[in-house]
Amino acid sequence: MPMILYTFFDSYDLSGKTVAPFCTSGGSGLSDTVNAIKELEPNAAVTDGLHIGSGASSSPDRAVSEWLAEIGLGK
Q1: pLDDT score at 34
Q2: Nearest to 74 by CA among 57, 61, 58, 56
Q3: Are 21 and 68 in contact (CB under 8 A)?
Q4: Which of 32, 31, 27, 23 lies closest to 60 in space, CA to CA?
Q5: Please, are residues 40 and 6 in contact by the beta-carbon 8 Å criterion?
Q6: 6, 25, 43, 51: least CB-packed within 10 angstroms?
Q7: Rounded Cα distance, 23 and 14, in Å
Q8: Can you tell me the distance from the alpha carbon of 41 to that of 60, in angstroms, rounded to the nearest whole number?
């Protein structure tokens, strides 16, 4: 997880909020990001994350819609 996100989580209390981590990259994806967020924000609901790789980055609509439905945030 990028250091800027550690700074963000140190600066804000997301207790009672839902955190839905996602990223776009051509590499490693989320790695251990979801677990790191759960540790930094123990009173937040942290969903499964979504990684959109370079192959899907030009048309992510379907992947995002399916992910949002899976985590209970879709229409």
Answers
A1: 96
A2: 61
A3: no
A4: 23
A5: yes
A6: 43
A7: 19
A8: 28
